[in-house]
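Weekly sync, protein design subgroup
Attendees: M.S., D.O., the rotation student, P.L. (late)

Item 1: inverse folding check
M.S. brought a backbone from last month's batch and wanted to see whether the design step gives back something sensible before we order anything. D.O. pointed out we never logged the input encoding, so this time it goes straight into the notes. Structure tokens as presented (281 positions):
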């Protein structure tokens, strides 16, 4: 059951924040949803946004400025939290890039984390919940995200292209098996057996695919991003797409950093990209 935390009139629609008891997480979880005015007439296509490290369900609706275009296009926008809250796992608040606010959109297998840190399964639980309880067309769902959330969007879409019909990302952690953020998260959540990491690495998943998204994938990357060289590796994903015959638009932008001014600049392009793809899904 959904508990409405707050709602706010927004561009003819409504921005809402919900809480619910999660079956997969075993704890209360929060998410945000923007419902455009067209939802009064019919179920609408929906777009899941997965946020990055340290963020929450509030970050995207407050900072990205996406509601105006979503209202024009008739897109429902759904943004989950980035991790469980209140799991009380020892050490879960010791680092900003692991634990609380850093669930990495995977199901942990290491004993301390496995009970509650199940963000991959949670996103699918949330998808089922919103298609049941809100005016969302279950056959027209896309996914996008930023940084850690870009990693999540790419991996979730590559695992379930039957569910997520469209995918894009802002500055994704594109090859987490190769970067410090990913190695720390995978070691902590999944253990030291690197053979298990590939299922959560977009570049490795794409390398074993064959044109999973014929209509293309869109990625924007700022060249002023301080994390670009050490953490993000877009070139690895670009090479994997070439091998998989996957159409990819990877746009590199001079001067743009890793933050929400960058996202706000290009979010309209992403919404229109998804609206076109979901119209034919």
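Designed sequence read out in the meeting:
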């Amino acid at each position: 059951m959904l508990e409405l935390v707050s709602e706010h009139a927004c561009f003819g629609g409504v921005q809402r924040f919900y809480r619910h008891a999660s079956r997969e997480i075993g704890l209360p979880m929060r998410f945000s949803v923007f419902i455009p005015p067209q939802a009064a007439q019919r179920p609408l296509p929906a777009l899941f946004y997965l946020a990055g490290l340290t963020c929450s369900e509030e970050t995207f609706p407050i900072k990205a400025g996406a509601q105006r275009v979503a209202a024009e296009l008739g897109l429902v926008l759904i943004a989950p939290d980035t991790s469980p809250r209140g799991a009380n796992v020892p050490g879960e608040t010791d680092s900003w890039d692991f634990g609380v606010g850093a669930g990495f959109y995977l199901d942990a297998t290491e004993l301390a984390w496995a009970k509650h840190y199940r963000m991959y399964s949670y996103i699918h639980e949330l998808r089922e919940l919103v298609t049941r309880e809100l005016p969302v067309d279950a056959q027209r769902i896309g996914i996008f995200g930023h940084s850690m959330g870009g990693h999540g969007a790419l991996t979730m879409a590559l695992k379930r292209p039957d569910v997520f019909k469209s995918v894009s990302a802002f500055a994704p952690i594109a090859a987490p098996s190769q970067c410090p953020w990913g190695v720390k998260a995978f070691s902590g959540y999944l253990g030291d057996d690197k053979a298990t990491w590939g299922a959560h690495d977009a570049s490795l998943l794409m390398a074993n695919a064959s044109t999973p998204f014929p209509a293309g994938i869109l990625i924007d990357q700022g060249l002023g991003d301080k994390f670009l060289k050490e953490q993000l590796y877009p070139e690895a994903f670009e090479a994997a797409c070439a091998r998989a015959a996957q159409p990819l638009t990877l746009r590199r932008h001079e001067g743009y950093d890793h933050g929400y001014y960058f996202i706000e600049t290009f979010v309209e392009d992403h919404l229109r990209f998804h609206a076109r793809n979901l119209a034919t899904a």
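Discussion: The chain is about 35% helix and 25% strand. The mean pLDDT is 98.
Action: P.L. to compare against the previous round before Friday.
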